[in-house]
Design a protein that fits this description.
Shape: globular
Number of strands: 6
Helix content: 40-55%
Order of helices and strands: EHHEEHEHHHHHEEHHH
Largest sheet: 4 strands, antiparallel
Distance between the termini: 32 Å
Radius of gyration: 18 Å
Oligomer: single chain
Strand content: 15-25%
Strand order of the largest sheet: 2-3-1-4
Number of domains: 2
Number of helices: 11
Structural class: alpha+beta
């Protein structure tokens, strides 16, 4: 990420299996695993100083910050030719611009955050999918509604299971916590706020409760709310097919 700049164009790709059918949660994780070799390939790393992953349009969405559009595209094209089980569902051509527009932060900070949370997320998924899903569900349903810091929840998980996180210097670690705890007004909805931690939630859950209209007021209200009662929490966990033991913690 040291080579990541505000001038790097960003392109968007949506991956699915070769049948191009919409991905459910389990298929999303399987498809994501299939593109890991692309993300780790030398040619991709050289031409793509940053990227982020999330679940969007029932696909694995990969947003690339590139310093060489032709090389990044060629690397992806070659990868797809050699991997017949996955395919490109759709894509958006790279463009230069402020990707932080609408997210309340500056362009450089946001690009670095997007790239950093993705590396942490990949490490967590490499440890265990269900653990990762429980982690971000606990954040969304317990911490975010009360508008309290996510650090007590996330720090044990990151420290135990993310090589990337443990290699960060002190300043970068402090920045991660600032970014994950950053809330901003939602454009055209001045009475609503959203958090940057949403991106990690979306990648690992996958998806996010804040996208459901019936939960919008609960999660985007700028004022702290009381904890969600257990019966409601159980119902909400079932919406994403998550089994969460009582008193689950990231140290379990």
């Amino acid at each position: 990420m040291s080579q990541l700049t505000n001038d790097n164009p960003f392109g968007i790709l949506f991956f699915r299996f070769s049948n191009l059918k919409p991905l459910n949660y389990e298929e999303y994780f399987s498809c994501l695993n299939l593109i890991r070799p692309l993300l780790g390939s030398p040619d991709f790393k050289v031409s793509t100083p940053g990227y982020y992953l999330n679940y969007n349009d029932y696909s694995v969405r990969l947003t690339c910050f590139t310093n060489n559009e032709r090389k990044t595209k060629g690397t992806i094209d070659n990868f797809l030719k050699e991997n017949v089980y996955i395919a490109l569902f759709k894509s958006k051509q790279p463009k230069v611009g402020n990707i932080a527009e609408g997210y309340g932060g500056d362009n450089s900070r946001f690009r670095r955050f997007l790239s950093a949370y993705t590396q942490i997320g990949l490490d967590l998924l490499n440890y265990d999918n269900l653990y990762s899903r429980r982690l971000v569900a606990e954040y969304r349903l317990t911490y975010s509604t009360q508008k309290i810091s996510c650090k007590p929840l996330f720090e044990p998980a990151f420290t135990k299971h993310s090589k990337f996180f443990n290699q960060l210097d002190t300043q970068s670690v402090e920045q991660i916590w600032k970014d994950l705890n950053f809330w901003h007004p939602i454009p055209k909805e001045p009475k609503c706020v959203a958090d940057w931690a949403h991106f990690l939630v979306n990648m690992l859950l996958p998806g996010d409760y804040i996208h459901a209209s019936k939960f919008k007021e609960l999660f985007t209200n700028p004022n702290p709310r009381p904890p969600i009662i257990d019966s409601q929490k159980e119902q909400m966990l079932r919406l994403f097919n998550i089994d969460m033991p009582n008193n689950w913690s990231p140290n379990n």
